Amino acid sequence: VKVELLKACAEDLDVVNAARVSVDQWHDLMEEGDDKLISYLMRKKHGSPFEHAYFQFRVEAPIFVFREWHRHRVGHSYNEMSARYTELQPIFYKPDEIRIQIGRPGHYRYVPLKPEADAGIIAEAKDIMHGSFEQSWSAYQDLLGLGVAKEQARVVLPVGTYSKMIWSCNPRSFMHFLALRNAPDAQKEIRLLAASAEQHLRSYMPITHAAFVENGRVAP
Ligand SMILES: Cc1cc2nc3c(=O)[nH]c(=O)nc-3n(C[C@H](O)[C@H](O)[C@H](O)COP(=O)(O)OP(=O)(O)OC[C@H]3O[C@@H](n4cnc5c(N)ncnc54)[C@H](O)[C@@H]3O)c2cc1C
Asked: How confident is the model at residue 105, as a pLDDT?
């Protein structure tokens, strides 16, 4: 599972200049007061100045993670490997920890089983997952062997199968994604990737990122 920054064209100055064009001003470098301007824009939800920069990532993750990711529609672009044109690889998500859920829908807490106390359940759960992956993979290969098209053979593969995508976003859509996916109630698998992506927002746009955090991680 990984998220890798391919390129970025992003700095805090992009926000400042997008906002200052309203009064026909331009700064070549960050000046005194520019950090306060960014903080003000964030707080007051003046969101559009945060749309003039760009991040591009390559992501490898299981299909169930992509299902969540692709729900983010506004200010995000995606291109994903096609299982119609490309034969998938037998790479499946095999979690180290096994979690149980406690509570009720909307309020679940997800608690990892304890490696020693729950060793039996953990081992059995992993056996079931791995056995299911093997069985599905073998069915996929059998269908391809019969000459069935990849677009149909793939229907037997599980959501734990890995996929790849190119994901691009702007700082505003990025922050909205982070607010929801690098958050305590997000599923751990997407949260870890969102946390890894967030480091790039922090390093390219430190003042914007700090304002986002000060604003309670609410995107403008
Ligand atoms: C913890 C968690 C649990 C979730 N559980 C479920 C679930 O059980 N089932 C499920 O289906 N989804 C679920 N989701 C997905 C969630 O409903 C959103 O689809 C996803 O988080 C993307 O958010 P978004 O729509 O705000 O983002 P984007 O699609 O990027 O939209 C950004 C913003 O643009 C505006 N916008 C976009 N489209 C419209 C529109 N059509 N009309 C009006 N305004 C619009 C809204 O202000 C929106 O916040 C869950 C998400 C999280 C984080």
From this structure: 87
Catalytic residue among 71, 181, 202, 217: 181
pLDDT digits 0-9 by tens, 149-190: 999 999 999 999 999 999 999 999 999 999 999 999 999 999
Place of tokens 């992956």: 133
Helix (H) / strand (E) element for 202: namely: helix 188-204
Dihedral pair phi/psi, residue 2, rounded to 5°: -155, 155
Whether 71 lines ligand 1, by a CB cut-off of 6 Å, is yes
**Which atom of ligand 1 is the closest one to the Cα of 74?**
30
Is the CB–ligand 1 distance for residue 72 below 6 Å? Answer: yes
Confidence of residue 106 (pLDDT cuts 50, 70, 90): confident
pLDDT of residue 175: 98
Q: Is 181 a catalytic residue?
A: yes
Task: For residues 217 and 208, give the distance between their C-alpha atoms in angstroms, rounded to a whole number.
Answer: 11
Q: Where are the beta strands (DSSP E) in 39-147?
A: 54-62, 76-80, 99-102, 109-112
